[in-house]
């Protein structure tokens, strides 16, 4: 009986120990020094805000209409001027072979 109670109580205790107060430097410890190229010393909020590179904005632009493709100057025919060579014919399985069985020993 104690074991199931302990298993259920452990996640509740872990969830309750989270800190909800704003982060501050430890007592007697200053914030990090100003970066070499920064104009002002960043405060705790500035240090905790992710940069655009760390959390880029999502673009959810839907295509609302089809547009013709622009011409591609690198879309050239083959060098001999003819059509591309045909693809090699696909190998067909033998009559006694089951194509759904792959890698099974004989």
Could you characterize the architecture of this molecule?
It contains 2 helices and no strands. The mean pLDDT is 75. The protein has 106 residues and is mainly α. The protein has helices spanning 2-16, 44-48.
Distance between the termini: 55 Å
Q: Could you name the ranges where pLDDT drops below 50 across 5 or more consecutive residues?
A: none
Please trace the helix and strand order, writing H or E for each element. HH
Largest sheet: none
Radius of gyration: 32 Å
How many H/I helical runs? 2
Main attributes?
single chain; 106 residues
Summarize the structure.
With 106 residues, the protein is mainly α.
Which secondary structure elements does this structure contain, and how are they paired or packed?
Layout: H1 2-16, H2 44-48
């Amino acid at each position: 009986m104690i074991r199931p109670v302990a298993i259920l109580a452990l996640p509740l205790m872990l969830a309750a120990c989270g800190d909800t107060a704003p982060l501050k430097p430890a007592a007697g410890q200053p914030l990090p020094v100003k970066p070499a190229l920064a104009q002002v010393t960043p405060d705790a909020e500035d240090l905790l805000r992710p940069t655009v590179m760390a959390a880029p904005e999502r673009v959810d632009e839907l295509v609302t209409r089809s547009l013709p493709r622009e011409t591609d100057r690198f879309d050239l025919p083959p060098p001999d001027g003819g059509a591309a060579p045909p693809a090699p014919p696909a190998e067909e399985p033998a009559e006694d072979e089951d194509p759904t069985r792959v890698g099974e020993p004989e």
